[in-house]
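Q: I have two molecules that I believe assemble together. Could you output structure tokens for the complex as a whole instead of separate predictions?
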Amino acid sequence: MSADAGSGPGAAGGPGPAHATPPPRAIPGTGEGRLHRLVALVNDRPGVLNRVASLMRARSFNIDSLAVSHTDQPGLSRMTITLHGDDVAVEQAAKQLYRLIDVLKVQDVTSEPTIEHELALVKVRATDANRAEIAQIVELSKGRVVDLAAESLVVEIAGTEAEVDAFLGLIRTYGIKELVRTGAVVMTRGSGSIEEALKR
Amino acid sequence: MTKRGAAKAPPSPKTPAAAQPAAKVAASPAAASPAARRSHVPGDGTAHAAAVEQARREMLREGTAAKAVQVGNRGSRTRIGADALCEALLAQGVDVFFSYPGGVILPLYDILGDYPELRHVLVRHEQGGAHAADGYARVTGRVGVCMGTSGPGATNLVTGIGTAQLDSIPIVAITGNVPSALIGKDAFQEIDINGITLPMTKHNYLVRKADDIPHVIAEAFHIARSGRPGPVHVDITKDALQGETQAPHPTQDEIVAGLPGFRPNMDGNYRQLKLAATELANAKRPMILAGHGVLHARAWDDLKALAEKTSIPVAWTLLGIGSMDERHPLAYGYMGMHGWKHVNRAIQSADLLFAVGMRFDDRVTGNVRTYAPYARIVHVDIDPAEIGKNVAVEVPIVGDAGRVLKALLPMVAAVAPEARKDYFDQLAEWKHESEGSSWHGSGAWRDGLLSADYVVQRIGELSDHEAVYVADVGQNQMWLARYAGFRHPNTHVSSGGLGTMGFSVPAAMGAALGSDREVWAITGDGGFQMTFQELMTLVQDRIPVKIALFDNKKLGMIRQWQEIIYAGNYHSAHLLGPDYLKLAEAFGIPALKASSPAEVDDAIRFAQGVDGPALIWFEIAEEQNVFPMMPAGKGLSDLIEKWGGAEE
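A: Yes, here they are, computed for all two components at once.
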């Protein structure tokens, strides 16, 4: 074994702490994960969703939600990717996304003022006894009953992920038969535009 | 066969319609039968079903569609997708490609005779073709091309494509696929090769129309060689190869305009360059770490200029070998897991690492926590994703190695070597000590057994260090990296990232077709036995590769790990091999065996004297290890230099 661990800054000839233990090198990232929102503009071509999903899987980034749609520009799609991770890991994810030829622009909007929206449809168990009660909760939560049936009703609720979560928390006691969520879509506030920034 | 069977046969079409008044349509025997059964064709009657049926029929008569439009020589027959492919390859300057025919790529072979400028090398296995394209790309700096058919042809290419991906080698791999109407139907030799290569290429394509071939091929080459190079896979359906097309070839400007998502950042940010210059000026024990990016950018002169102006020694990664002449006074050596102890020592005590075109791979850093604990890091790389991926750095610079080094040169302060006298003295002392402790001038390792490092050294010396040396993977690869003595860029070829055994012989094949230099394939008996089918290709195409087969009758690196890390629990480390002289003879390749140091020089000279491929069977010591060695997960300061009392 070599004795390199002891060859500190002074080893090259000058004076110095001959056997000072060097501090461990920082590994990239803080390890403190939080929710991040990435907006990506991508070519609207077959397989692009697969490329994005495959990359995230291969590099062990965990996608919480992914919403894809067209933009108003032909050939251009927009993805909103929600993922957990520390800032460095998410930056790495964004950089890896940039390596894809079909990815034109990636923006981490987590720290920016944004509008965030998610839509959920919930099929809730309902009886004659509690239907009015549920309807009231729906109304107070700014949701909408979109289908009525003998033993259930379907509620449409939109808002931030947290608002949808809160609503689900209220309604869960009645029994959720079915739930679908679109995943969050976000847009930055103000007149700045990621599409215009693209300068195609 | 039986009478019963004959009785059950449907009525012949000649049966008079009048005999079956109930049948409305007597067009087919099935329809004419009393209980007309429904069609077996899903969605029969639709255009899609007709296309599928047509495609199926064409699968059974391979190539006939191309023949149908062929009316004489190249000039007057219809231009089909395969023609567009050949034209596109020629437009990209391709002079040779490595391929193997198969059902759906036959339309290409049908017209290939019309393009004598394209040299087709018939490999014996598609993996060999992919490695050959890779070897060709590494020595020429141009894009290598390999091809194969669908299904197994395509999956055989995969290991070679992965090898190119991990080492950022520009190759374009082209495969045929089943007719587009059959895609997704599990047709004969159909596999989702596009899905397979998607995560292991820089980009990939599925071409379903002949008209798309010109621009896709041009894009593929542009993507493969621009920015951080890498492999691109183009999958072309059989009907696209056969279809008629008048599609023109795009200009380079059109290609660039059509790829808005691909704009590699070539020039370093000026502010970052200023910061880097300051770091260089302040450092007392700086070290330049040169990687593969320096070779990709052809920036070896810029590297030397910067090192000389600032008097900073240069260490290199495995794939950075050749970025500096090893005789240069500032050339310090090869770093990492099996690198030189003095180099790792210098890195561990450096106060600044100026890393160019390398990615702080785990084989380079070992445990990141204990890596270069005193060093600030300036990291130059063309791929932003590499910066901050494995180690946190102080000054990131995104850009092409050549352009960054050129821009930085006038910004850095000149430092005279005398100003670093103490530092240089220390480095020289470490180097002397390290080289002295791991070198065997005698050529013998224990009791007259042939020492592998000695053989590598003699191959280097007897070829005047002017040859191209292609490593396989394992001990032979490390011996080559350490002891051959490299003086020129792109003369060292090695599968560094993927570590693909069996790489050497086929990659050397491609290297020999791309280079005027003598080409040596350095391989162990394990890797050789994986791909030696290409020996026949060497013979058939008269490709003058000199093969140095290091036979220790072991999977040497496996054996070394089992000895040191797995407490001597050897399993599958012993490897039986054939009589390699007889093997070479069977292939028609001149061969010699050398088992003692005295035989080494003559054997090497013999191989050099052969006009064409030659093989030397070096019977080396069976239990020689590569030292020093950094155990995986340990740090650069935890090098193992000897084991069990044996001095290696």
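A: One point stands out. Residues 264 and 442 of chain B are 50 Å apart (CA to CA).
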